[in-house]
Amino acid sequence: MPTRRTDPLTLEVVELIGTVVARYHDEYEEAAAQHALTGAQARVLGLLSLEPTPMRKIAEKLKCEPSNVTGIIDRLESRGLAERRPDPADRRVKVAAPTEEGRDVARRLRESLHFAREPLGELTEAERTLLRDLLRRMLGTA
Questions:
Q1: Phi, psi (degrees; rounded to nearest 5) at 63
Q2: What is the predicted pLDDT for the residue at 121?
Q3: What average pLDDT score do residues 119-141 get?
Q4: Which residue range forms the structural domain that includes residue 56?
Q5: Which tens digits make up the pLDDT trace of 3-12?
Q6: d(CA 65, CA 72)
Q7: 125 in a domain, yes or no?
Q8: What tens digit of pLDDT does each residue of 15-54 get?
Q9: Which CATH number goes with the domain that contains 66?
Q10: Please, are residues 62 and 69 in contact by the beta-carbon 8 Å criterion?
Q11: SS (H, E, C) the chain
């Protein structure tokens, strides 16, 4: 009898999750390229559009070195899409924030990502809620 990790249903679910992730990343890279951004730059800009964020926290979210984030922010700044400002809570800390143009580019990027949005739109609200809750449970954030 197969173990829970190797039963056919589990293997199929793992394969489907991998396919969804790969397709999402491919579409994200294509959308970023349409705005002359790398995928990493687009992800950082997307995070910044939610709220100004210390660069160390960006590195934690992206699971990369803070020096990588510094380079990404430098390139976004040179394009007028982001800026560094003092953190109002601790002026010793710098936060990265989108400019108005950066917020606009982040919005257009989000709107151009059809792969994730369109199939989810075909699910009912109850199905999307169940999927969200199951994903949170898998990630240990339920």
A1: 55, 55
A2: 79
A3: 90
A4: 24-112
A5: 566 889 989 9
A6: 11
A7: no
A8: 999 998 898 888 889 999 999 999 999 999 999 999 999 9
A9: 1.10.10.10
A10: yes
A11: CCCCCCCHHHHHHHHHHHHHHHHHHHHHHHHHHHCCCCHHHHHHHHHHHHCCEEHHHHHHHHCCCHHHHHHHHHHHHHCCCEEEEEECCEEEEEEEEECHHHHHHHHHHHHHCHHHHHHHHCCCHHHHHHHHHHHHHHHCCC
Locate 1 and state its tokens: 């009898």
CB 50 within 8 A of CB 61: no
CB atoms within 10 A of CB 72: 25
Which amino acid is residue 106, in one-letter code?
A
Total domains present in the chain? 1
Q: Tokens 């210390």 sit at which residue? A: 54
Is 142 contained in some domain?
no
What is the spatial distance between Cα 48 and Cα 90, in angstroms, rounded to a whole number? 18
